[in-house]
Amino acid sequence: MRDRVALGLGLAAAATLRFWGLGRQSFWIDEVLSVEGAERIQEQGFAAYLFNKRGPLYDYMLAGLVPSGTGESMMRLPSALCGVALVLVVYLMAKQLASRREALLAVFAAAVSPFAVWYSQEARYVAPFMLLSGISILAAHRFLERESLRSATSYVVWTLLTLFTFVGGIFVVLGQNLWVACSRPPRKALVSWVAGQAILAVAFFPWLIHAYGVGEDAKPEQTSTAGAGFSVSEVQTGSARSTELIHAGYVPYTFAVGYTLGPSIRELHEDLSLRPVINRAWEVVPAVLLTGLVLVAGLRHALGSSRRNAGLLLSCLICPIAGAYVVASVSGVAYNVRYTASAFPAFIVLVASGLSWWARRGRMGKLIVGGLSALFVLSLVNYYSNPGYWREDNRGAAALLERNRGADEPLVVGAEWRALGFYYSGSFYSPYQVRLETTPGNAAQEEVPPPERLWVAATRSWEDERFREFLKKMRSCFPLERAFKLPGFEILAFRMGEGGQHDSCGLTIVAPPLQGRGNPL
């Protein structure tokens, strides 16, 4: 009875944290891509988005559950529900792989996890991916424990769903196979396991080959040499990031305290040195030490209880992190924490095991448990109340421009033009559609008549070298008249009429403007 009450309280806490302020922040670019993918499926039919390289399941789930044109809260609802369900799955994992006590600790660790809350309030594949990865790990253990057709079928189905949610699920499957190889199950169980892996391969790899064009000639729109076929090095996502080994350590740190403690994501992108970390050392150092102490204790405690179960947790923690790191090292895929999210359920179980161990170690243990709990709380407070950690405020930027920008005043938007255009109803230019010269343009090009001012929506400038150069020239050519600060945005109005330096600077349009969709969310 106590366990049920504790589980109920944990699920209630999880639901409260995930549904509270679900639509407060606007969509950022990746969420806009998810919404557009769902709309494309609704408009063009089932085959419209089947072979995207990420994995199609989430977009189809969104298209089936959410009507087109609904608001942020509704579009994020599937992720929030998956985030609550993850708490239950982690409870079952810890109960089966550790103990009842650790299962209850895992409930509350998952419920208040800043990392889990972040992705439970995002219209993206990550929350379903974490949920399905946890179920797959649980099903893998039951598969070998029970050796029944039902458990084998359950494992294959849940693992396929994981793989089709995000292709990075391959690494949690690799971890499961490493565990099986090291645990040396009976011959009959091993044969069943191999048969299950063969079914997974037959069902998943044809989609993977088609999605990535393996063995096909390069398509005309690709920039690689025609006929070159598939190359791992040409696979690319996100902006370029360092693959130094120290960055792999950022994953367990983020799993523990999320993106809302220490330097923000924006600060880490804008300055690739250790300066942002050093500036927040008073937060980062305690978080690293406490997380490390709890993880080491959790692994030690798990190994003492059951080496076999600890092996499953450890392999499903390490393989996704190491796999994403290796892929980032040999391709253009950015090393991103969310690509390793299949390791999060195993991480939480090990954290619960570590908290259980430390809680029995007197005053020192209680300080460590209390310290890590305090970091969770501080990170959650930042998430809900500190705009410095929020996603880019595309909705707020669109509203500000609607109120202040004149109809004849050009607007140039940085790397987030697609996300801003989701909310903004006016026209605008990307940095690739205009050219700012220190000498006026020639007569063969369409020169913009000098309007009263020119607006620039500066965001994610680290992703676009051309935009950074454009902004630098604007600052040297025209006086800054007004500046607005929003989360992730700097809206700048440059004076181009009287007082501007038109004798030495010229703005030239090289392509028609883009038109925002002005989504009334």
Q: How would you sum up this structure in a few lines?
A:
The chain is of the alpha+beta class. The protein has 20 helices and eleven strands.
Written overview of the protein:
It is a single chain. With 521 residues, the protein is α+β, with helices and mostly antiparallel strands. The chain has 2 domains: 388 residues, no CATH class; 122 residues, no CATH class. It is 59% helix and 8% strand. α1 packs antiparallel against α4 and α16 packs across α17. The longest helix has 26 residues. It starts with a helix and ends in a 6-residue tail after the last strand.
Key features of this structure:
alpha+beta; 20 helices; 4-stranded mixed beta sheet; 521 residues
Explain the layout of strands and helices:
Elements: H1 2-19, H2 29-44, H3 57-65, H4 72-97, H5 100-111, H6 114-120, H7 126-146, H8 149-165, H9 170-183, H10 187-212, E1 236-237, H11 250-257, H12 265-270, H13 275-279, H14 281-305, H15 307-330, E2 332-333, H16 344-359, H17 362-385, H18 394-404, E3 411-413, H19 417-423, E4 427-428, E5 434-437, E6 446-447, E7 453-458, H20 465-477, E8 480-486, E9 489-495, E10 506-509, E11 514-515
Parallel strand pairs: 1-2, 3-7
Antiparallel strand pairs: 4-11, 5-10, 6-10, 7-9, 8-9
Helix pairs in contact: 1-4, 1-5, 2-3, 2-19, 4-5, 4-6, 4-7, 4-16, 5-16, 7-8, 8-10, 9-15, 14-15, 14-16, 14-17, 15-16, 16-17, 18-19
Q: Mind summarizing the main beta sheet?
A: 4 strands, mixed
The total number of structural domains is 2
Count of helical stretches:
20
How widely separated are the two ends? 44 Å
Strands of the widest sheet, in order across it, are: 3-7-9-8
Q: What characteristic shape results from the CA principal axes?
A: globular
Structural class category: alpha+beta
Q: Based on DSSP secondary structure assignment, what is the total number of beta strands? A: 11
Relative helix content:
55-70%
